[in-house]
Amino acid sequence: MTSFAAMEHCAVLIEDHQIADVFSKKRFDQKHFSADTKIIDVHEGFIAPGFIDTHIHGFGGYGTEDAFDTTERGTDSIVEMSRTLAQYGVTAFNPTFYPSEKENMLKALKAASNAMGRESGARIMGVHLEGPFISPDRLGVQRPETVKAVDLLLMEELWDASGGHIVNMTVAPELKGMRELALFCIKKGIILQAGHTDAKYENMVEGMQAGILHSTHLFNAMSKLDQRNPNAVGAILIHPEMSCEIIADGYHVHPDLYKLLMRDKPVDKIVLITDGLKPTEQQEGPFFANGEEVIFHDGVFHRKMDDVIAGSSLTIIRGIENLVSYGFSLEDAVKTASFNPANVMRYRNKGAIIPGHDADLSVFDEHFNIMAVIINGRIKKNLY
User: Fold this and answer.
1) Cα 34 to chain center, whole Å?
2) How many CA within 13 A on the CB side of residue 365?
3) Beta 309-312 vs 300-303: how paired, if at all?
4) pLDDT, tens digit, for every residue of 147-183?
5) Ranges for the Amidohydrolase-related domain (predicted)?
6) Tens digit of each residue's pLDDT (9 = 90 or more) over 49-101
7) What is the total count of domains within the chain?
8) Is 268 tagged catalytic?
9) Which of 139, 141, 320, 372 could form a disulfide with 363 if both were Cys (CB 3.0 to 4.6 A apart)?
10) Is 19 among the domain residues?
11) 5 falls within a domain
């Protein structure tokens, strides 16, 4: 299976950390390989491009919020996220930070920058900032004291602290000064996402004109569709140029809404994310997220003090399985987790099984169990 068209009974040749060729069974049987070529038979497994999670706060007891303590602890925690995510088929990710006090955010961004190049598993592609320039009326579990008016000087400090590694950033398009911020981000190559926003439809259109063409966890923490003003949700559904994140856990978004999404959005514009929290797949509590205790029930983490949904416990492979159960083809479901995020984030040489691309592969069986993971041509998991 590639991200463009499924191929049955195929083989993928890896040379020098890249995909060198893709064979049909007939071509493979006719091919003569050198004696030192290692051949791994995945039997009836599906070979997919490596999964890319562009919105994830933590995993397996490790998380980006650890960087608010010390830069060193944060670096170590993000490196451990890399290791554990690889066991679940993720080959690249954007560690995602909630906004915090300025000093904390600067430490955190330095931690993420320091972690890049030290990964033992999934590659860190860059940082996702989920704020601080968001709406105080659409916080979710974000802390109100950390939300800021648009501040270009602060943005420059954040950019410098990251070492130029901010890849994507969630913003509220309706905020004063957003156009100036958008122009700054365009020059730096930062993908802006509309999210945690109370935008009216006209705010969203103005944002699109300024280059805000992606959106954060569609349907969640944004102004709802209304018959007199389409607002944020309506704008994202109406305009085909807008891409959107989705949390396909069956709790953040009702499963039947995916029928609407499949009808109204080109599949290329749908990006599967987990929005996973630090305690995802963590075996023992207590559990914490964004500095507050959370409890797990009804399939998601809730903030203990008020039961507000704090985030998901989703893994990408489970999200793919869920999308298939909602009516997506397997091919399209995989695409939302590989080719689409690579395309939206402008990651060259990732997200597809074609010659010249990085040799990042995830292999899973018919029950959506991860059987093998290859990152940059190196085996990180192999159960065959």
Assistant:
1) 38
2) 10
3) antiparallel
4) 999 999 999 999 999 999 999 999 999 999 999 999 9
5) 46-379
6) 999 999 999 999 999 999 898 889 999 999 999 999 999 999 999 999 999 99
7) 1
8) no
9) 372
10) no
11) no
